[in-house]
Each structure stands twice: as C-alpha cells, then as structure tokens.
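Sequence dictates fold. Next comes a concrete instance:
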Amino acid sequence: MVSLIIVLTFFWMIVILYPASVLILSIIAHLQKKIGHKGADEAAERLRCIRIDARKDHLKDALFKVLVAVVFFILSPSLVLYFFMQSNGF
C-alpha cells in the first residue's frame, strides 16, 4: 500500500513540478530572444535563436531527469512518511 501511495505521489508531483519548471525555462528563453535582438543581420539572429532553443531543450531534458530522481527518491517517501507518522500520532 505504501509503495502505491509513493508512486501516486510521484506522478502527482511530476505533473505539477515539471510543467511549471518548463514554463519558467520557456519564459526565460523567450526573454533572451526578445532582449538579445540586436538588429543584426537575419542569418546571425536565426542562428542565435536556434542556439537558445537547443540550450533550452538540453536544460529541459536534464531538468526532467533531476526532477524524477529528486521526487521519487526524496520528496515522495518523505511526504508518505510524514503523513504516516501524523496518522499514527507520532
């Protein structure tokens, strides 16, 4: 039963944390594109935008791996242990 609760808590936290983190990364990348626009030639600007998008994709992949590890091995068991201790009066 506890393992089922850990897995459900894991999926719930990933559903909340990952989209919020990706939204923040997307906003930062959008601001980098807007603020960094220097009015240079079209090809240089396009290359800079491609590099920003590639960096954002790399960060999203790394973020997902880190979030899965942290949520599954640290946050979910801690949360389940906390509620278990609260329900038993510890």
Summary: The two ends are 20 Å apart (CA to CA). The first helix runs from residue 2 to 35. DSSP finds two helices and no strands in the chain. The mean pLDDT is 85.
